[in-house]
Amino acid sequence: MRVIKFTMLATIFTFALMGANVRAQTPTVFTTGLKAPTKIIAAGGDNLFVAEAGNGPNTGRISIVDRKTGVRRTLIDNLPSGINSLGGEPAPSGPSGLVMRGRTLYVAIGVGDGALVGPVQGSEKPNPNPSSPIFDSVLAIHLSGNAEKTTDGFALTLADQTRLKNGERLRLTDAGGNRITVELIVDLPDYIPNPRPDYTENVRASNIFGVAVDANQLYIADAGLNLVKQVNIYTGNATTLVSFPPVRNPLPFGPPVTDAVPDNVRVFGDALLVPLLVGFPFPPGASEVHKIDIATGRDEKFIGNLTSAIDVLPVKMPGSESIFYVLQFSTNLLQNQPGRLLRFDSPTATPVVVAEGLVSPTNIARDDRTGDLFVTEIFTGRIMKIASTVTQTRNPIDEVNGFVEQQYLDFLNRAPDQAGMTFWTGKLNEYLAPCGSSNSAAANSCRQKARARASEAFFVSIEFQGTGYFVYRFYRVAFPVSETRPRALPRFNEFIGDAQEVGRGVVVKSTGWEGKLEANKAAFARGFVER
Prior knowledge:
Layout: H1 3-16, E1 28-31, E2 37-42, E3 47-52, E4 60-66, E5 72-79, E6 82-84, E7 91-93, E8 95-101, E9 104-109, E10 115-117, E11 124-126, E12 137-143, H2 145-150, E13 154-155, H3 158-165, E14 170-173, E15 179-187, E16 191-193, E17 203-205, E18 208-214, E19 217-222, E20 227-232, E21 238-243, E22 247-248, E23 257-258, E24 260-262, E25 266-268, E26 271-278, E27 287-293, E28 299-306, E29 309-316, E30 322-328, E31 339-344, E32 352-358, E33 361-366, E34 373-377, E35 382-386, H4 400-412, H5 418-432, H6 441-459, H7 462-466, H8 468-478, H9 492-503, H10 513-529
Parallel strand pairs: 5-13
Antiparallel strand pairs: 1-35, 2-3, 3-4, 4-5, 6-7, 8-9, 9-12, 10-11, 12-15, 14-15, 16-17, 18-19, 19-20, 20-21, 22-23, 24-26, 25-26, 26-27, 27-28, 29-30, 30-31, 31-32, 33-34, 34-35
């Protein structure tokens, strides 16, 4: 959200800390002592990654937290951050978004102190000497599994930040000899001109507050300009995918309209889910989660009648549609109420209150093995743990539907279409039929071979051969065998992103699929040679 709102909310929640009327599950304190945690994601092994805005200039941090014990250690420290006073008490602004693909962690950085309070009430002006040269940016951190497992921390210097600004790729080493690589993907303007009659030099600060990745694109939630940007990972080119106009204030006090502020962004199939927290006077029921079509930018309400929605987490359940966790920053900001976590079994279902009494919650992560949820609280510096309320008795991949869905994701980088799902589940059931239902070694071996047969069929399918395998062969032709590419193969991140790009919108046997595939291949080839 805009820093101006966060500083106001900090004052409100000073009083909310004194107590809460908890009627649902009571969260437990899992980790304390964090520096204004804004985002949290489940990482490899038993880890969580946490983005922390810091507590002063260039004190932003990414922490690794053990999912079993809650013990924290540093991944990287001294990231860009600053103290921002736009419209209220000073508040930290720094690392504000996290998403991981393969061994690359994308870190969004907020506005920091890139803009200052202007000379006229409600105005803003540029900061000629910001604490960092790369506020409102996204960094890519490439790290090995061993570095994640064993590091006691890397650190940036201000000189390193300047080198990133100048396009250099940093290679950092920790005390134990682990290495990571850091590069700048995009550096957006800290503000845009916003002249007003009483102050022509007025600006409006940007403020990145969430990031998601799909194919070769990053999607950035800007909580200052109230929009979502699309950024090409390879070129850094940024375009606005969707803007969110002000919404009507239904209350008898306050301004006639108020901001609809995007506070995070999540990929959901071929769409994005974006929670919109409305500004002062924070009318109850006016907050919504919106669904944005990635291809067209079409914007529609997905979940409505919310209050202070700050995050949404879709979860695919075995044998069913997705459920949705929605995090509310407060149930009533003007009455100093804490936040809560809701669960929607469908976008239109009556929500179930999962947990209450959350003080300044900002983000949710889920342990897919246990179903436990973890919530960051920015003003308390805590991670709260919420025990699973949804029982998952079997691994989804052990079921026919779950196995087929996973093949679609692994080979075709998309959710199954209905006709394809019917075909492939029928095929797998056909392969499994001779195995019977016993739990003998012979029957289990038969089932393993049946699943392998179905997986092999996906590999030789027309769609994979034209998308993922096309990308694989393209790299083999484009690159010579070298020390950095011993077999001239694409790296994992390259392969996943490129295969998604080539396969976007392609469903074999649907109308016009051949033309769509050929157009995607041509666009990929053009973009490849321009990298």
